[in-house]
Amino acid sequence: MTKKPSSRRKKSISSAISDSELPFKRANSGISSQENVDSAAISVEVVEIEELSKQEESDRNLLERKVERAFFEAGKALMELRDRRLYRSTHKTFEDYCRDRFGHSRQKSNYLIAAADVYENLTTICCQNFGIDDLTTNSSQILPTSEGQVRPMTKLEPQEQWEVWQTAVEVAGGKVPSGRVVKDVIEQIMERTQVPNTYQLGEVCQILVKDNPELRGKGGCWGIVSAVNEFSCTLRAWNGEYTIGLQHLKSYNYLPAECEQMQVICDRISQVYSDSLEETVKSLLQLLGKVNRPYLTVVEEKLLSVLESEYV
Q: Which of 54, 114, 280, 281 is the most buried (most CB within 10 A)?
């Protein structure tokens, strides 16, 4: 099939402009140049749009999908670098590695990793719902193009992510929605399906990570509820306070007397803890901060007493 070459042509459009319509009139009648302009020529450039061949259309779709998937590929790569500790030959921590190698914080890396999970969930559910084997050449499905667009969805379950994304695409008029639009959709859904926060002050809860990178390292830790918010609770844990969404909390359902006992243990651990402690001491405190019973064993009590005598 011979492609029709693009062509450009210029059309001259003449229109009569009366003397009264001129932006100004020459005040000096002694000037010999023409004082009245009878007409003006406006040059308009018309460009004919060239159709793409089927192969070119396919190539365009493929390249567009590669651009869209850029943040997804980055997140998956960062996840593997972190999990396999491939930074260990040059850096002690993943945070230092990300800062030196990519110029951004570990939080930014965590955002990309979490966004990659959301993108993967969306594409998986999309393929299941529409019977599509490969989305890389399918231009009919609207998918995220940046990490910021999916950041508000990282704490949702996969099916919830899909429902929120489809609604956000509709709100955006069939185009890729911004992160602000996605966040607004989530807030509207939460308002319609609001579940009251039933946690109480002093209640002992366990922290659940559930693929939330912001809670990495805190999974299994227990804490005392110090503030009850609309969709979250503030927990006092062994190494500080954290505000955590309800979906990442699980009550131990301890009796009031048991909650009081855990409050005492939490206070004792908090008095010992500081950022300057040796790693072995921090590790011991973290183990105490993960006990899943409302008391300390005899050995645990002795160890904590030794630390109190040494650091308090």
A: 114
